[in-house]
Amino acid sequence: MASLPPGECCTKGTKHEGTPKGTVEKIQNITTYFARPANPNGNAILIFSDIFGPIYQNVQLMADDFAAQGYLTIVPDLFNGDALSPELFYSGKVDFPAWLARHNTTTVDPIANIVVDHLKNTLEVKKLGGVGYCFGGKYVARNLKDGLLDAGYMAHPSFVTSEELSAITKPLSIAASEIDTIFTSEKRHESEQILADLKIPYQIDLYGGVEHGFALRGDLSIKEVKFATDRAFEQAVTWFNYWL
C-alpha cells in the first residue's frame, strides 16, 4: 500500500473560524457544497473530503479559498448522508470500522462518477482538478486518469493502494506531514518511487513538525501549524495554476 488505512488520527483536529460563503445544492441526489468564484477561470476543483464530508465547516472554508483563486470548487457528499460529524465521532457512539466498511469503493466510486460527469459534461468546465484530504486522497488516485481528473493534489492521504497510485496518468502533488502513522515515511518513499517510475509530473512536499490532518484540521493558533497549512494550500494552488 502507498498509504495505510484511516485511523484515529484521521478524526483529530480543530474547527477553523469563518463563515462559509457557498451554497449547498444537489447534483442529482448528491448533497454538494458549491463555492463559486467572483472571477472564474473556467476550471474547477472537486474536493474529495475527509470523513466529515461537505457539512464540515473547515472543508467549506477551504473550498471558498480555492474559489477565491478563480476555481469553481465543489465538495460532494461521498457518504450518501452518512458523513460523520466531529461531535458524533467524539461521542464514542460510532463504530468506525463498520462505518468505513459501509463507505468503500463500491459506494463512493458511483458518486464520484456522477459528479465528474456533471462537471465535465453539464457544467462544461475546461479542466478539472481533484483535491483529496485523508480519506479523499484515495479517490483522487482512483480518478487521476484520462477522461476524469486532469491534475490532482492530496494532503496526508490514507487508504491509497500501490496499485491505485501506479494506475494514475496525470500530474499529482502530495503534501505530507512529518508526524503521520498512516502516510508514514516508508509509505512516502514507496509513493515517491512509484511516481518516479511512472514518468509523470509529480511533487511531494514534507512539512516538518505537523501531524496527519494538518492541511484541513490543524490548530491555526500554533505558528508552525499555520505556516504548514498556508504553504500546503499554496502548494495546491500553484500546482493547479500550472497543470490545469
Automatic annotation (TrEMBL):
Q: Where are the transmembrane segments?
A: none
Entry's Gene Ontology molecular function annotations:
hydrolase activity
Q: What is this protein called?
A: Dienelactone hydrolase family protein
> Can you name the source organism?
Hyaloscypha variabilis (strain UAMH 11265 / GT02V1 / F) (Meliniomyces variabilis)
Disordered: where is this region?
1-21
- Annotated Dienelactone hydrolase domain ranges read 30-241
What InterPro entries does this protein map onto?
Answer: AB_hydrolase_fold (IPR029058), Dienelactn_hydro (IPR002925)
The keyword Hydrolase is annotated on this UniProt entry = yes
